[in-house]
Amino acid sequence: MKESDRKFVQAAGHETAYFECGAGAPLLLLHGSGPGVSGWTNWGGVIDQLAENFHVIVPDIAGFGFTEFKDDTHYDIKFWVNHLVQFMDAIGLDKASLVGNSFGGAVGIGLALFNPERLDKLVLLGTPAGTFVQTKGLAGAWLYEPSVDNMRSLMELFPYDKSLITDELVQSRYEASARAGAQDALRKLIPQPNTEGETLVKGFPEKAVKNIQAPTLVLHGREDNVVPVQCGRVLSENIPNSDLYVFGQCGHWVQTEQKQKFLSILNSFIGGGQA
């Protein structure tokens, strides 16, 4: 699949960009929230492999990537979940398993809690949960001003292996980050860093995720400098039917940094029992 294969559909009043390929059990892939993020930048490296076994659908969440951002829309987790549900309706998808990266995992948790009948299995990668001190990566995402150099500096905070930050990735994410409204949408999601002292970030609280009934797999990089690994432990300790896999020498992009392990574990979990 190529980036030019992107399609569009109307959902929750937003022209919504997405990719779709493969056959089999439906599998939604949701991206994170960093500047210049999109379904393609987060998942383009694994779409074709996953499409060998699954019907893969990769939308851009409202306000991000190539999906519309609207100044007069109040964006919050309930809106983003509603947008996802209406997107599923628009493409004729009744129920699916969902893999969410970071912010995309938070939207997946929202779906599990607010519309559990639409969710089969849930996979959470580097997903925030509980309350934690804002990391350098999240603060940098809020403070980011679009430029190629600023994008490179920010991206270097995400993976353990900095060689993954290619010129092509930097340019692609910079161009997406420079779209009108892109940084505004991001700043609605991440708290503004305090000028003095620590800034606290709040994900779904422990008492909320205890209500998730879907079988859940939690994946987290041990060296994640964006969403700390403690969040993965909070999720696995509170979601009743869940397992946790921590990847060593891995930052915030499990699906890229530990690609083969990720694909093997995901195929086992979605295709059969829990890994």
Automatic annotation (TrEMBL):
Keywords of this entry: Hydrolase
Could you name the domain of life of the organism this protein comes from?
Answer: Bacteria
Task: Give all residue intervals belonging to the AB hydrolase-1 domain.
Answer: 27-259
What's one Pfam family the UniProt record gives for this protein? Answer: Abhydrolase_6
The family database entries (InterPro entries) matched by this protein are listed as: AB_hydrolase_1, AB_hydrolase_fold, AB_hydrolase_sf, Epox_hydrolase-like
GO terms (molecular function) for this protein are: hydrolase activity
User: Which PANTHER family did the record assign?
Assistant: AB HYDROLASE SUPERFAMILY PROTEIN YCLE, MONOACYLGLYCEROL LIPASE
Kindly provide the name given to this protein in its UniProt entry: Alpha/beta hydrolase
Q: Which organism is it from?
A: Marinobacterium maritimum
